[in-house]
Every structure is written in structure tokens, then in C-alpha cells.
Fold each of these.
Amino acid sequence: MPPAETSAEAVDVTALLERGRTLSTPVLRAAVDRLAPPMDTVAAYHFGWIDALGNPADGDGGKAVRPALALLSAEAAGAPPETGVPGAVAVELVHNFSLLHDDLMDGDEQRRHRDTVWKVHGPAQAILVGDALFALAGEVLLELGTVEAGRATRRLTRASRALIDGQAQDISYEHRERVTVEECLEMEGNKTGALLACASSIGAVLGGADDRTADSLERFGHHLGLAFQAIDDVLGIWGDPEATGKQTWSDLRQRKKSLPVVAALAAGGSASEELGELLAADAKSNDFDSFSETEFAVRAALIEAAGGREWTNQEARRQHTVAIEALNSVDMPERVRAQLTALADFVVVRKR
């Protein structure tokens, strides 16, 4: 392949994402079909395969970054991309387990431009289907019956525990007036970084890679996850609802201590102090749920004035750099290196 075609700029990221979706979706649907009614139908609604009435639908199934990473990690180990499919499916099952539970815990009524599962089918079904997807993830891997499958399952289980730790931290921070930047990064490293780290290595493990290679790919995914979440935090405040599928000022409505917020509070200066006073008052307010768009806009403007938005964008770029550096210790085809780099580039420039 000519050198120009192996550069990150020449990679078609959309095609990589679509390949991950195309190869993993049939296996994912087959796994979901194992669920007892009505959980199979509820899960199908969550994934966008049917509408609320049970009619076939072509809903937005998400960005498919994790399946794309799982397939690329298999290729990084010299295996065919198909080797990573069970890992891609297992990671997607865990990811969607977390989304079902997070939406309920956060009170989110919209995801991917549709009503969330708990809103349509009730909280009990959101909990049960989330639990079922989590159990399915282990099944999909362990039924391969190989040593590599056992290694992959251990990594997925460890990542899942970290993800849950991160969600617990996230919820606890909502009730605190102040959270440090370091605490926020630790939480986001657990909540988002751990599963992206697993996605970035699980295909390689299934392909027979040694622990040194898998650990380097995990480091890539972990720092990519921190970059991913930093951009998510920016979009959670300033994202276009048409693109994100969430409400305006989504994270502010949930009082999330996301990176832009904690960075702004730590910055000092008049905007930082005014923001701190407002958020402290918000925590004690009985009228928070009735705040107007203007009141949320004021808080977003103060975060930006204090430097929280710019700091978070810079942190995303820094984590992106560290992620790419982690690939240097992995001996892989240059085509795959360019594709992993392009996918990392996509993460820090996306709009949703």
C-alpha cells in the first residue's frame, strides 16, 4: 500500500465504524434474541431495531466506536477482524447495560433522539434488561471455550467493575459542592476509559496477543476514553440537541460535576467565584427543576468565562496525544496503526 494511503488523514473512519457495526450487529441481535419476553423486545427497542409499538425501525444505534476498536485490535495482533467480533459484542452488551441503568439513575428521558427505555417500558424493565445484557456479555465470550476467551472475559469483568465504580463516583459527586479535577479524571477514567480500554485490547487477546501487547492497547484505549469523555462533557453543556439527542444544557440540568465545571471552579477569578456561589445555591434550591433556559445559559456562560470549556478541550487533545504514544510500543501493520490513529482523531473532533 502506498505510504500516502496509510496516513490517518487518508483513512475513512465512517467505513471503519460501519464495518464494526455490520460485523457485530448480527451476533448482537442473536444474543439479544435469547432473552425471555418481554426483555427481548425491550432490548430491541433500546438498540433501535423496533419502535415503541414493536414495528421494525432503523434507529440510531450509537457511534459504534467500541466495535470498531475491537475489530482493529484483532488486526493489530495479526488476526482477521472477525476474530474480534465476540469481543465487540460483549463490550457493546456491557456498554448498553450501563446506558440503560444510567438513563434511569440520571432521569434522562431521551437517548439517540428517542424516549429512553425506562420512559417507555418502565424502570423495572430498564433494570432487568440491563442486568440481562450484562450476563449475556460473559456468555458470548465464555461459550467460545478457548483460553483466549477466558483471558478476554477477565479483562471485560475488570473493566465492568471499574465502569460501575465510575458511575457510583459520578452520582456521589452530584451531591457535593466541590470536586477536584483529579477526582473528576479518576471518575471518568473508570466510567468511560475502562470500557474503551477493554474494547481496544479484547480483539487482540482473542487473537492470541500476549499481555504486553494487550496492555499497551489498553493504555491507548484508556487515554482515548478520557479524551472521548472530555468531548462528551463539552457536548453535555454546549452540544446541539439536534446532534446529541439530549436536552439543552443536559449536564447542568443534572448538576453533574463534569470536567468543564470542575475546571472552571478550580480556575479562580470573578467568573469562577460567581459560578461557585450559584452552584452552591442550586444544591440547596427547591426550585431547580423549574429553572429557565436563561438560568442554565448564565451558568454555561460563567463556566466558559472561567476557562472551563477551553481547559476541557485542551485536556481532550492532551489525552489524545498520550493515547497515540501508547501505540508506539505495539508492533502492528502500519495500515492498522493509521486506522487506530484516525479513529482517535475522530473522537476529539466529533459533534455528538
Amino acid sequence: METEQRSPRTAPAADRAARRAVTLFPVLVLTAGALGLAVPDAFTGHGEQVPYLLGVVMFLMGLTMTGKDFQGVVRRPWAVGLGLVAHYVIMPGLGWLVAHALGLSPQLAAGVILVGCAPSGTASNVVTYLARGDVALSVSVATVSTVVAPLVTPPLTLLLAGEYLPVDTGSMMTDILKTVLLPVCAGLLVRLFAGRWVDRVLGALPWLSALTVALIVAIVVAGSAEALKSAAALVLLAVVLHNGLGLALGYGAGKLARLGAPASRAMAFEVGMQNSGLAASLASAHFSPLAALPAAVFSVWHNISGALVAAWMAHRGRAAPAGD
């Protein structure tokens, strides 16, 4: 879903394409999760492929990026810095609070917290666009949160989830570098030196990413199919609370800092939407398939909630263009 995210346009055709992607992506992921639950034997032997599949997603993300995606950081360092701090304070803290409030098992608690410690989600930019938010700010915060993830996600996970399960920060940092930062950089380089050819296939990249993320979800769900059947309601409640509070507090942080309505909408999605594919990959590798379930459910839910909130914000924005 990165093509529209990185280069949102105001033309009606682009708007329809973005809406179609946001609508169909959660349906695709939900279908994949249902398949993983219904026929787990078809996916259970592929758990070791999850990091490589995530690397494919991040490489495709890199292909859609250009130097313009980094210019906003220089132009508006205060707003980008605020978004970065809000993201890595609010969501990890909420993950810890939700895990404690619901009395989650150590595996599920660690999984929820790890989701909170992940960088911004790959759909946040296009949802910001649909909400008539500040897309430039959204892109800048998402980009920086991804770049700093190797340095921030492991220690935060140790701090908040260490009471539940052992956390090897060094190994986790290496995994994030290999599965996130290096593929993104590789994609950037390919775009830089072969941009003419990449431009020809940009329209297909969002769907390749969506299919890959869906496959990750199917594998993760299949790995703990029996556990999910007994804990589905609890995991869904944890995810809905985590995501919903993140969206609300992210928006509130923007309003409190007087960034304006469009920037506050961007803050809502940059805080509340997570890179759940990364969280699922790390949970599977460092904890267990059960710990990856919150990330799999989050992958479905935050796209549904994001699309709904974006539609509501866009409606409010049209009714009151001067502010929310």
C-alpha cells in the first residue's frame, strides 16, 4: 500500500485507488487469517520464512520512496520529533497498560507490548491522505520511526516486556537491521539507479506488499490456531483497546501541541497504526507463535479502524474546513 502512501495525489482517480486499497487490504488479510485458522497444516511449515517475507515488504516500501520523503524532516524538525516521541512513548506504554489491565498471559502480554514498540504502520500515510490530514508530516514520521527502529524497539521491548519473557536486545536489533533497514535501503538504491523501470511497476507494488503481509498473517495464525480459538476474544479486545487509545491519544498530542487539524489527524495515525508485520516476525523469532497473535490481529484491525476513522475525519473536515 506504499505507492499511494508515498505519493498521494488529489485527482479523483488517485483518491479512488487509495480508497480501494484501504478497503481491500484488511479483507485480504482477514481472509488469509481465516485460511491459517481453517487449514493450519498448509502454512505451519513456513514459520522460518516470515523474516524473509517481511524483508520483501520493506524492500517494496523502499522502492516507493524518494529523497522527497526525507525533506520534511529538515523542514519541520519540531513536528516530526514530536510525532516520533509520541509514537514511541504512547504505544509502548499503552501496550504495557493493556497487558496488565487484561491480565494477559506472559506470551500474549509480550506480543501486545512488542506491537506497541514497533515503528509506524505501512498504511498510515494513505489513511492520513483519506482523512485529509498532513500527508507530508505523516510520511516524515513514518520514515524516521522506521529508520530508528533498530535502536529504539529492542530496548523498549526489554524495558516493558522483560518482566514477562527474556528479551535478547542484541539479536533483536540485528534482526530489525536485516529485515527492515537493509531491505528499505536496498529499495531506495534500486529506485535511485533504476527509477525509470521502477516507475513502470509502481502500481503493482501495493498489491505485492498486501499479498506478502497476508501470507505472513496466515503463517502466524496457523502457528497458534488452537490457542487462537480459545483466546480470540481476549486478543481482539486487547488489540481494539491498544489501537483505539493510540489513535485518540495521538490526535490529542497533536491538538495539545497546537499543530493544527490536518497535522493532528496525521499524528493520530502515526501513533495508532503499527508495523504489525515486523512485530509478528520478531515475536515469532524471539518469543513464540502465540506471542505473534496480537500482531496478526492488529494487522487486520488497525486497517479497518484506520479507514473508518479516516472517513469520519474527512467528513468533519469538509463540514468545518477551518479546523476540527
Amino acid sequence: MILDKIESLLAEVKEMKASNAEEIEALRLKYLSKKGEINAVMADFRNVPADQKKEVGMKINELKQTALERLNALRDAIETSEDGDQGLDLTRTAYPIKLGTRHPLTIVKNEIIDIFSRMGFVLADGPEAEDDLHVFTKMNFAADHPARDMQDTFFIEQNPNDVTKNILLRSHTSSVQARVMETSQPPIRIICPGRVYRNEAITARAHCFFHQIEGLYIDKNVSFTDLKQVLLTFAREMFGADTKIRLRPSYFPFTEPSAEMDISCHICGGKGCGFCKHTGWVEILGCGMVDPNVLELCGIDSKVYTGYAFGLGVERITNLKYQVSDLRMFSENDVRFLEEFEGAK
């Protein structure tokens, strides 16, 4: 009878299954604990006839060993399964993951930088949270200039006794030019790409932040002719060899004389279309000769050195290059829009 009992338990032990640690522990208690099935069989061993003790003893040992091995195997299987799940992130994008592309603003910014780099300009960078001294004062802005008003500028800290100590989000990258001029002596030939901020209503044509690239060249005998030729070279590299430019007189506090630069519409070839409002021309940047006051405020002798500066919006150039109708699309991260630039270089 005891041998039949052992064989029955052996068959049960070999078929043991468990899906977690709690179920394994329940099986251990059922078969291997002090009150378990195997210990009960071992307690009956004393009633086995002497001539059968060897055979029954070997069967009991086989049963116990089989139970231990099966429980250990179940534990190993559970642990392996749990280890394999540790790196599983259920929030991760499902495979296959599509390769992305550069943002259109990055594509155009890099192209602009490449063009000016080939003309000898080097990159310069500065903080986005700036002081009034570098954003406005050293750029020849009057203390009561409207650009300092809350309507135009994002202020972080304001000093009622000294406006030059106000902390603000830079409204142009001219602050980088000021920092370079006060720490370097000519010749200086830099371009300053970066994000800028202005307190404007967000529409299809404007945003509270955008990207600029400003350029500065200071040396002896720098003329407006030099500026015109650099900008003509840039326009033809950017928009095509047949591109024409025109310079219209304008005003900026930091340059004198100053100009707005237009390019011939690359869509209609200057004949006139809806894109250029039937004028044949599209405005792309502002420029001019560096005002002598700016040079002096930054520690450069204006009697020895002259220079020119220019500034353009990356979004503006991108709009012209790819005919994007809504400026907000650049910052909405709509994948459908971004996928349109997969073939751009």
C-alpha cells in the first residue's frame, strides 16, 4: 500500500506547476513541510516490513529528491521570467522605431552658418537670459527706448534705479556681439545664431520666440560696399545664382547708415506674384554700418576701426525657402509636418 502511495505522490510531484512564487511556496508546504505529504509517508516507514524497507526507503528518497528538483526548477523559471521583464517599458514606442529627420529650422540654420563660415565668419554664443547693459545699452538704445517697455520685452528682474542692471530674455542676439566686442579687439568677424524672445501675440506670422542669426565684421577700412557684396553672395548661395538684392534706407539704433535688404522673389523670378505681393521683392534682413557709439561703448576706437552688422530671422528664411504658410507649425511638433523634410539636406 505504501508503495502505491509513493508512486501516486511521485506522479503528482512530476506534474507540479506554478506561475508565481506564492504558488511555489504552497506546493512546498503541501509536499515538503513537517505536516506535508512526504513527511507523512516517512512517518509510516516504521510500519514497513523489514524485507521491504530497502525498496521503500529508496522510493521515498526518490520522491523527496524529485520534489526538491521540481520546486527548484519552478523557482528558476519564475526568476528568469521576472528578470526578462525588468527592462520592459510599456510606455515605449512600439517597434519598429522610425528614424527621424532634422527640424526645418535646423536645416536652414546650418545652411546659413555654412555659407557665412566659408566667408570667414566664426560662431559666437551667449546667454539667453541677459542684462540690459548688453542687450540695449551697449547697442546705443536710449534709456527710454520703447523696446525696453514690457510690451516688447520679457523682464525677469527690474532695477528701478539703474535700467542697465535689468535682467531679461534677450530680444536679439546683438548682446552676443556686445560681449565679443568688449572682450576682443579687431579684426572681429562673427555670426551669432540663437533663440530670442519678444512679447508678441502668437499668430501665423509672429511668435513670442524665434531664431536669429546676426553677423558682425569690424576691422580697419570696412565699408558699406563690403557689406553689400557679402549679402549678395549670401543671397545667391541661399536662393540661387540669379538672385538679385536691393537695399532700402532704414533706421536701427546700433547701425548708421542702416538698410533693409530685399531679394528678388525666387518663386516668380521678380515678375510679381501673390507670395511677393506682386512687387517682385521679398524682405529678408536688416543691416548697416556699426554706429561709432556702439564701438566706443564696447571699448573699440571708432576713429581707427569701422564695421558692419546684419541680422536675419531663421524662420523668415525657412518660410521663403520652403513656403511654410504658418509660423506656428515650426514649434507644434506635428510629425506629419516634420516628415515633409525627410529629403532635405
Amino acid sequence: MAVFKLDNVEDLYEIGSVLGSGHFGQVREVRERATDVLWAGKFLKLKKGAGSRLGLERKSVEKEVEILQSLQHQNIMALKDVFESRAEVVLIVELIKGGELFDFIAEKENLTETEAIEFMKQILEGVRYMHQKTVAHFDLKPENIMLSDKHAPNPDIKIIDFGMAHRFIQGEEYKSLGGTPQYIGECLSGLSPFQGETDEETLRNIVAMKYEFEPHCFSQTSNMAKDFIQKLLVKDQSERMTAEECLIHPWIKPLNRTQIAKRNRSSINMKNFKKFNARRKWKMSFNMVSACNRFCRLQLLCKARGPEQQELRDCESDQEDTGTKPASLLRRRLSSSS
């Protein structure tokens, strides 16, 4: 069961600068007063009622918190504390400053498969641990694979964002329509083997398991790497490699010197990778702008309607209620807007 504290977060942590913001809240740097250690605080706005259009359902936050509190692994973002007030939940999590793995790779002029495997092994270690705990992430994509410190000699991978994660119960059947499946294979070639002319065609290829390793994109990719990918691109889950099996595949754990030599001679297609990463970042920015535009239109629509209409009352239920908000939240709101 998820454990929430009712303490005032500002009694234990000094609230710092904004690191990022989204539709449901913002992330701020926080300093633990007792130890001076820096953490990240995720301030998540909760829905006020069934008719509320803004904020997160408390049940979904509880689910994420329960999962994170049960996962303690070097390659998974750590959750330290959770605070709850009437208006929001604050998650105190590990401060991860190294940025996204894909951005780190894109800055390099060249990268061998051997170097890429060191990152892949860490991702697989984290996934294996999750699966041992009967947890599936359901949204493993470049944006959710971070580095603890990109300047470290051997940066640690950190898997983040467990908002779509699910803990399985024996015998349960679970279906998820979320996730971003087209990223498989792009780390090595800069192009998905499922790639179509449009997103819709790419999705159709994924559903039909229709893919190919185009020579002009995968010419620098070793046969062992292709075999590794093919054993993951299997529709029948019972026939697909598990994270445990991935870690002993010859591409990850070579059986002899010949396999090591072949792996060392292969490299990442950096030209395509840089192009892919630039497209990915542009698409993320485009989606964010579109979401902001939709949010602004919703606000304008609410303002344009008469106060007697139910739609307006629904919108008003999501506005800040400074008259009843705890003093600590008021102080943080005022300091962040000054």
C-alpha cells in the first residue's frame, strides 16, 4: 500500500528552482534541510472531484507511488518521500542531472556497439529487477531513460516515469494501449526496422510484425545485434526473450573471442542516429505546443460561457482555491511567481 506523509513538505525540504513543468504540475529542485542533500520534488495537482477536468486522479498517483516505493535498484529512479495535501501530492525523488541517454549519445562523433551495450545492460538490469517484482513499465522510451551524471566516467542509467507502470497479479489478464513502441532498434541504426512513410503506417507494421533491416541503415550493425533485435520482435510473448535471457544473449555476453571481436568492429550509425534524435526532439516540442494550445482554447471556452452553465462551473472547480489552501502551498505559489 502506498505510504503518504501528512507533514508540511516545506518543514523538511527547502523548495528551489523549477526544473520542468507540465499539464499536471511541475518539478522543482529541493534541498533536504536535515542533510543538505538535493532531490527533485514533483508537485502534482490532484482532481478536486468527479467533474474536474484538470489534475490527476488520486488513485493513479497512489498506484505510481506504491510501485516506486517497492522498487529499489541502481538503475531505477529512487523515491524518498511522498507528501499529501488537499490540493496536491509531492513526490520527493532522486535528482537526475545527466539528461536523456539519447541526447548524450547524439553528442558523440562515434560510438561502438560495445559502448552501446554497456548502456543496454543497465537498462536490462533495471527491467529484469522490475519483472522480478512483477512490475511492467509500459512506457520505456528515450525520454524515460536518463543518465545520473553524463560527466561521470561510467554514467548510471536511470529509468524514470512510472505513471503507466502496472503490477501484475497471478492469473490476471492486462491490456495496455499506451506506450511508444516504434523506438525498438533505433538506438543502433537511427531508424526503426518498422519505419513507414507515416506514423500510421509504422504502427500497422508493428501490429503486423512487418519489418526489415535496410542495408543503407543497418550496414554497420553486427549480425549478433540484429539477432538480438529479432528475438525481441516476436509477437507471441512466450516465444520472446525475457530480460533475463537478453542478459545472456551473445551480443550482450559474448561466448568467445571471435564474438567479442565482431562486436568491437561494429559501430552505431551516428549520422542516422543524430537525424533521428533531432526529429524526435522536434516532435516532442510540437506535441507540447499542441497540448498548450488545446489547454488555452479550453480556458477561453470556459471564460466565454455564462456563469450559469454547468461547463463553466466544471472549469471553475479546477481553479486555485487560495482561500482554503494550506499556508505552505500559498507561500510556494507566491515565491514561484515573484
